[in-house]
Design a protein that fits this description.
319 residues; disordered C terminus; Carbamate kinase
Length: 319
């Protein structure tokens, strides 16, 4: 007697799983997860991402995702809008020269209070909603950042703008220890003074541009990449005549463009230039108004924003 067979038509077809696109997205991220595993990433937190509640929450999720995916994120932040708001409350004027905040001793007290006591604490708390990961520090702590006095250039002449500094040196020991312990350092852009002011060497502190501080820290840490969040899509090729974003350029190409950039973009792009010329593999300017912009840049084929790469390289860097 022959054994009956089941007609092929009666075999159920494979089900279409609605979650399949998620799996494809994860697979797309695999080469980048492998590429960046164990690498340090310095992220400058700024722009609308600092003041919009949904963007702040998405930023915290992105940073924690990086850490859980095997990267070593370090966050550097300023707090311009929050500082200006607090100064206004206290009846103190916000004054800027050549794009830099004039920082009197009274203003410096407010800067320290806002950065370390408000912006940093809020960001640390957002990150720690996902586990005991983030640790807040200022550039003063453990002598992480030391700075010398910076002068603004107005009409070709140096102008004293108070307690504003340029990074002179970086001590990475405390940050490395936190990274080795699986923590996420969150650093406020305040540096100790190395000048003979306010009671002698090291007796004072300086307000440091957060873009500059992040770039210097990325170089000192030997970071894989520097990521700068801002309020534009990236570097525009011919602003304001065109809104085309430059997706990638070399350090030399960026240097040629710097003199013609809008004042707000100069410290960001100068920071990117410094980073890639001092050992950082790539530097990127991202639109912080886009939720999860960090993940889109690092873990997708398309990427977003503008990437700066060193002049001499073997092959094209992987995003």
């Amino acid at each position: 007697m022959s054994t009956p067979t089941t007609p092929a038509a009666s075999v159920p077809a494979a089900r279409k799983h609605t979650a399949l696109p998620k799996a494809r997205t994860l697979i797309e991220a695999l080469p980048w997860l492998t590429r960046h595993n164990g690498r340090t990433v310095v992220i400058k937190f700024g722009g609308n991402a600092m003041v919009d509640e949904e963007l702040k929450a998405a930023f915290a999720q992105d940073v924690v995702f990086l850490r859980q995916a095997g990267l070593r994120p370090v966050v550097v932040h300023g707090g311009g809008p929050q500082i200006s708001a607090q100064l206004e409350k206290l009846g103190l004027e916000s004054e800027f020269k050549a794009g830099l905040r004039v920082t009197t001793p009274e203003t410096m007290d407010v800067v320290r209070m806002v950065l370390a006591g408000q912006v940093q604490r809020e960001l640390v708390n957002l990150l720690n909603q996902h586990g005991p990961l983030a640790v807040g520090m200022t550039g003063e702590d453990a002598h992480i950042m030391a700075a010398t006095k910076r002068y603004a250039t107005v009409d070709g002449h140096p102008v004293d703008i108070g307690r504003v500094g340029d990074i002179a040196s970086i001590e990475t020991g405390a940050i490395q220890a936190l990274l080795d312990d699986g923590r996420i350092p969150v650093i406020s852009s305040i540096a100790r003074s190395t000048d003979d002011e306010d009671g002698g060497p090291g007796g004072g502190v300086y307000n440091v541009n957060a873009d500059t501080a992040a770039a210097a820290l990325a170089a000192a840490l030997g970071a894989e990449t520097l990521m700068v969040l801002t309020d534009v899509e990236g570097l525009y090729a011919d602003w304001p005549n065109s809104d085309e974003v430059v997706s990638e350029l070399t350090a030399a190409e960026l240097e040629e463009l710097l003199p013609g950039l809008a004042s707000g973009m100069v410290p960001k792009m100068e920071g990117c230039l410094h980073a890639v010329r001092n050992g950082v593999r790539t530097a990127r300017v991202l639109d912080g108004r886009v939720q999860h912009s960090i993940l889109l840049e690092i873990f997708t084929d398309e990427g977003i924003g503008t990437m700066v790469v060193p002049d001499k390289r073997e092959g094209k860097p992987t995003p």
